[in-house]
Structures are given as structure tokens and as C-alpha cells.
Prior knowledge:
This protein is mainly α. About 75% of the residues lie in helices and about 0% in strands.
Amino acid sequence: MIWQDAVFLCGSVFSLVVLVPTLRDSMANVPLGTALPSATIGFVYGTAFFTLGMTMSAVGSVLTGVMWSLIAALRSPHPYNSSSDSEVSRSTDSTTNGAPHAD
Length: 103
């Protein structure tokens, strides 16, 4: 094992730990423009690390890509995720109570 493999693995594990609250929060709203490129980068980095023989880094990067893919599927507004749109509109309606919003 080369030390760089362990460093990149630690970075990926840190990313996974930081992203768990976003995945668990049903009110989180992450744009697809953020989630999909991040997932793609995770998969591309994973492939690159694997071709360099850095197996641990590859696994960590692919898992980060999977996490971003889950966030894109579950926490991004899109036509197949109707729960995020209805929850946001319900919470907006209940908090404003028809009163004007001061900016």
C-alpha cells in the first residue's frame, strides 16, 4: 500500500460522513446541477484510481459517487421525486400564512 492511497481513502470517507446528514434529511433540497456532476466526478476518479492500482482510493471514490447519486435521486427536485415539491410548497404555505414577506 502506498501512503497516497490511504490519504485519498481518508478524504473519501470524510466526504461520505459529511454527506450522510444530507441524505437522511427529508427536507434537504440539493440541485441536480450539484449532485449529478459530483456523482460523475466520484465515478471518474474511482476509475482513474483503479487504473493506477490504488484500490482503496478507487473504492472510496466510487462510494462517494454512489452517495451523490442517491442524493440526486432522493434529495433533488425532479419529475420523479414529487415528494420534494409538495413538501416544499406545503411548508412555504404554512409558514407564510398569506402575510407579505419582507426582504
